[in-house]
Amino acid sequence: MSVFYVESNVESAKEFFDKRMIYRTDTLNPDYKNLTNFNFAEKHLYGRVNRHFVPILPRNYIATLKKFKVDGDGPTLQALNFVVDAFNDLQAQFKKCINAQTISKRERFLSTLDIYKAYESPMRRYTQHTNIYMETIGSLLKSSEGNILSFNQFIGKLLPVLQATGRKNPFTLPAYIKSTYCPMGVSGLVVEIADLKPFNDDEKITDFYNSLNWEFFLNACKEYGFMVDQLIPWRLVADIGSPFMVSYAAQYGLTTTDMILKHPYEGAHVRYFNNFKAYLLRLYNLSIEQNVYEGVLCSNGTTRVVRRRPYPYTLDGLNNKYDDFYFFSLYATIRFFEEESPFSEQERNFLIDDCLEIGRHDMSEAVDIFERIVNKTFDYRGSLSYIRERIKKLKQDAL
Questions:
Q1: Sequence-separated (6 or more) residues with CB below 8 Å from residue 73
Q2: What share of the chain is helix, strand, coil (3-state, %, to 5)?
Q3: Could you count the other beta carbons within 10 Å of the beta carbon of residue 280?
Q4: What is the C-alpha to C-alpha distance for residues 345 and 329, in angstroms, rounded to an integer?
Q5: 48 CB contacts (<8 Å, ≥6 apart)?
């Protein structure tokens, strides 16, 4: 076992803390601004939220994702097109220097820059998360007191569970994208050049920080617009604020950082809200017993057992019984459970009501504005005035 650095995830909590502090101190290097701690403050959400802290996903996959050139029969790996171009040039630079014998060719990971991991589908990862989470909630609701026979009963039992667990276990896609369950790779901005264990600090020091090519690696990454994760040094992250990375993005018409954030991405809520009912219907079906037996008191004082079946909803049936305003209110309520917001109950109700007013004209606009507010860090009153001005404008346009 290493004296100074973490090698195993079974070390005691005190040993882990002390050794991790030593690692962070030893790996600080102010000379390299692109060596970045992505566990610090808003950096944790880099590539997964826009400037308004609204969770985002890459869109138009065919147009914006591009495959890496991988030798042999390796897996198909992708990232955003300009990220692939920049990495290919970085990789070529390493090969050029290896051939010129200006850097060591014997480094385990910092000689040829092989790719081990890149873009991960956010929807696939979210589906894996919800499969487990929904099964758990469904079993919990089944075992709770009183059988569920209708959607109203289901929601009445579901909301207290989500209120108690939503902060740590996200239910909606936007909350999942911001959570620790969601990997940085969903942004399409990440390339990993090793397959080491993230907890093994001793290997990081040996194979990266003590590598003969380490400083060359940092300088080359900066030149091609990449940040290097201080805690996971084999993780390269495209710096969309770097003029070098923007120059690669410009080849695809993305000439500024704002354009990069806007065009290849869309709000996670855009895709999710349209499927929100389907997720609830699926969870409803996981939460009900197909046959419910209840005792009924007869007029002669005896009790007989009758079989009752939960109502068999379909998506069309839900749409006919509950309108979009109901589901938006439900969505907003759950999102408040998931976010650390300073809003009082009255402010939450005001926000939902104001967004519903916008929803009478454009429900997608209502969801957009709600997400911008609920993810904001500034004072709610300023946000509320913004909403009311937006409602006023919509009413004027309708005249």
A1: none
A2: 55, 10, 35
A3: 23
A4: 14
A5: 55, 56, 177, 178, 182, 184, 186, 187
Residue 26 pLDDT: 86
Distance CA 236, CA 217 (A): 11
- Which domains does the chain carry? 13-120+183-255 (3.30.1380)
CB contact set of 301 (below 8 Å; sequence gap of 6+)? none
For residue 281, give the amino acid letter.
Answer: L
* Summary mean pLDDT of the chain: 88
Q: Of residues 316 and 290, which shows the higher confidence score? A: 316
Residue at token pair 């171009």: 85
Token representation of residue 207 = 């194979």
The tokens for 202 are 């001793």
Tokens of 79: 């990232």
Tokens 């997608």 — which residue?
364
pLDDT at position 381 is: 41
Tokens standing for 80?
Answer: 């955003």
Q: Has this prediction a pTM greater than 0.70?
A: yes
**81 touches 65 (CB < 8 A):** yes
Phi, psi (rounded to 5 degrees) for 148: -90, 125
Closest listed residue to residue 311, CA positions, set 282, 290, 286, 283: 290
Q: How far out from the chain centre does Cα 126 lie?
A: 8
**pLDDT per position as a tens digit, 123-165:** 999 999 999 999 999 999 988 877 888 999 999 999 999 999 9
